[in-house]
Each structure stands twice: as C-alpha cells, then as structure tokens.
Amino acid sequence: MSEALPKNNIFKVIGASSLGTLIEWYDFYIFGSLAVIIGSKLFPEDAGASALINTLAIFAAGFIVRPFGALVFGRLGDLIGRKYTFLLTLVLMGGSTFLIGLIPSYKTIGYAAPILVLILRLVQGLALGGEYGGAATYVAEHAPENRRGFFTSWIQTTATLGLFLSLGVIVITKNVLGADTFADWGWRIPFLLSILLVVVSIYIRMKMHESPMFSKLKSEGKISKNPLKESFNNKANFKMVLLALFGATMGQGVIWYTGQFYAQSFLENTCKLDFNDSRYILLWGIAFATPFFVIFGAWSDRVGRKWIMLAGMLLGIVFYRPIYQTFLDDTDFSSVSQSEIVSSTPSIHTVLLDQSQDSLRTTATKIVLKDGASFVKLQHDTLSVAKGIVPAKELIKDKVLSKPVFWKFIGLIFFQILLVTMVYGPIAAFLVELFPTKIRYTSMSLPYHIGNGVFGGLVPFIATLIASFAGSTPLSGLWYPIGIAALSLIIGTIYLSNKRDEHVND
Length: 506
What we know:
Pfam families: Sugar_tr. The chain is α+β, with helices and mostly antiparallel strands. The chain contains 21 helices and 5 strands. Helix content is 69%, strand content 9%. Strands 1, 2, 3, 4 and 5 form a 5-stranded antiparallel β-sheet that branches.
C-alpha cells in the first residue's frame, strides 16, 4: 500500500500535472474551435461544404492516432517512468501546435498546406495519446486510496478547461483584431501563443518527482519488462481492457464530444449563430458546469464509479434530440413577420466574375427584431449579360439571439456539459483501479484513447457527414453518439463492477 502525501503536496502534484495537461488540451482543441476558418485557408475557395468536412476529417485524424500514442508512450511510461514520458509528450504537442500556426495557406503552397497540417495533427494525436494516461496515473499514484476519485477529478477538468482557454483566447484575439483581420491571419495567433504556455509548463514539470508507486517498483526491480505483452497477452488483463473500452470509455467519449464540440459545431454551422454568440454560450456553459467534475469525482469515492458514469450516458440518450431540436426551433428566423422587425439595413457589394462580363451582386441585409435578436440575410444575384438577373437562394447567417434565448441556450449547453462531468469526472480513478501498477500506464491508456479518440473524437466529423447525406435531417447526425452511448450503457450495466481499488496495491 502506498503512503498518501500530505494535502499540500498532493495539490502541488495535481497543479503541476494539470497545468501541462490543460495546455496540451488547449493546443489540441484550437484546431477544432477554428475549423471553419482553417478550412477556408487549407482548401480552394470554391470547395464549399467539403472544405469543412475535410477540415473536420483532419481534426478527426488526430483522434484516430491517439491509441497508437497510448501504446508507444504507455510502454515508455511503464518502462522509464511517468514523469519523463509526459514531459516528452508536452514538447511534441507544443511544437506541433506552434508549427500549425506558421504553415502557409492553400493559395501559397496548394495542397501541401492540408498535408502538412495533417502530419502535425497526427503528431499532436500521438502526443496526447501519451499525455492523459501519464497525468492521470501520476496523480492517482500519489493520492490516498479512499479519495482517488476526488483527486484525479482535478485532472479531468483539464480537458474542458483547455477547451475553455482555447475559446477564450480565440474570442479575445478576434475582438481585438476585428473579424476581417482575424479571418485573414489573426487566427494563427492562438496557435503561436501556445509556445509560451508550453515553456512555462516544461519548467514546472522538470521540477516534479517520479510517482512513489513506480519508484518503489523500480527500486525493487519489479517494473514490467514488456508492458505491451503483459497488458494484452494476459487474458484476464485484456478482458479488463475490452470491458473498460466498450462498457465505459466508448460511451463516455461520445458524451464528451457531443456536449462540447458537436454542440459548438451545430450552433455555428447548422443554426448559423454569430461567431461570438456561439462561443460565449459554450464559455458560460463550461464555466458553470466545470466544478461538477470534482463533485462527481468525490461522490464516486463514496458510491462507486459505475452508476454515475452510466447515468450520464442514459441522460444523453434521452435528451440529445429534444435539446438539438430546441436549438433549431429557436434559431429559425425564416418566417419573421414585418411587424417584428425594428430595422433592416442592406449593403450591396458587386464583383466581376472571372473571364466574363457577368458580375456577382451580394446583398447583405442586417435585420434587427423587437426582442433584440438580429440576423444577416444574404442574397447572391448573378448579373448576366445574356440572362439578366439570375437570383440565388437566400441565406440567413450571423444570428444573434435575444437575451432570454441566449441564456436558455447556455442552460442547454450547461446540461450537456453536466453529463460530461458525470461520465468523465470518475473515469480516471475507474481506469487506474482496473490495472496493476507495473502495466497501468499502458493498460489504461489504450481503452481510454480508443474510446475517446476514435469513438468520441469522430463525433463532429461523422455526425456532420451523416447530416449531409441526401434525405437526412439536421438531427440525423445525433444517431451516432446516441447509438454508441446506448451500446456502452447496456454493456456497462451488465458487466461493469461498482467496486473500487481493485488493483491499487499491486
């Protein structure tokens, strides 16, 4: 049995581990938060909706390789220690993020731009595959056994806080520079700023000591000689790996990425909310819900991990479609009556089309309603020498919500992130307790990163792709996370144990 650290020391361990992990999540999520703008820079201007789908595919690629990073760095962590392994992952993540901010656009280097970004996203994914398992294991192996859920839940906050930080930096940068400058080159600043955060975190992590459990194993000569073989060739241990994946992390992953990333994508790309409005809604929802990671983590020390996590999955299955239908209904301005309009201000911009005498006239009309809501109605008309005026379909975008609806949306996002805290708050302690110390880093990292990186990380891409199919509705994409969560709920209910501390003393 390991000796618990004094309270002030365990919080130093949590602080040092959490800061680095938060920065890695910040680096990883900037890309997703800026998917629309990045897509316009990486692909031809006439790519249309495919630019967003291709950009989300590049975003998803970073998730797909996370399990490979879990194997590579998990093995290193079980062989050489937790501290130096997740120090290495921090350097790789920070360097990749900084370089993404320097890559030229499609106009400058053509398709080399998305290829280079894809390579760097793969490096990010590999690094993150090694980071989380190391940080969670490191904190868990310092924590007293009866409070492992509480202390590891602080690490669980870092993923959401990393997203919060990325959104905050993006909104501040955009507001300082202005929308046009931000879309032109200012979007690179959040990527470049990450190098400063990484340097600070590296300095702090260099001062950390190795985990006491791992140090004890090493001094006794009991560290694993082949963590991969011991993790996956051992039938009993491999069974626990599969159970952790299909009964817990798979469902937890889709709840996490639906409640935070797909929600943002849906509000911005499907509901056509204003850039700032969509991000402010998510920022407020995250701010209100984040303390519940620690609340549910601590509660899991008393009642066990299983039923808290499964309850979060069940609530997502039941409420996702009603929530997203509400998003659609409350942002439908297609049938606004004239009596509701306070002002209507048009602006007209005309450009000549290439190699023809025709021109494109764009009329952007900003409409303000009595309740404070507003939107921009776009009309693209081709002024053809041969055909006269050829009107195109109207598009409504940049919707700003009235205050009551704005706060209603914050409440709906808060509820979704509350479900995230239920499934995610206890999961680090749950995974740590499933596996013996000498192969813990490897064993827990793989199911976590397959569940989150593959099943969860693909939610924005797969859901957006499904919704783009002929005959689909805007809600069709939700069947993917609902289906995965339902499968995990069934398996977890039947096969997961609610016991705690099963292997903590190995």
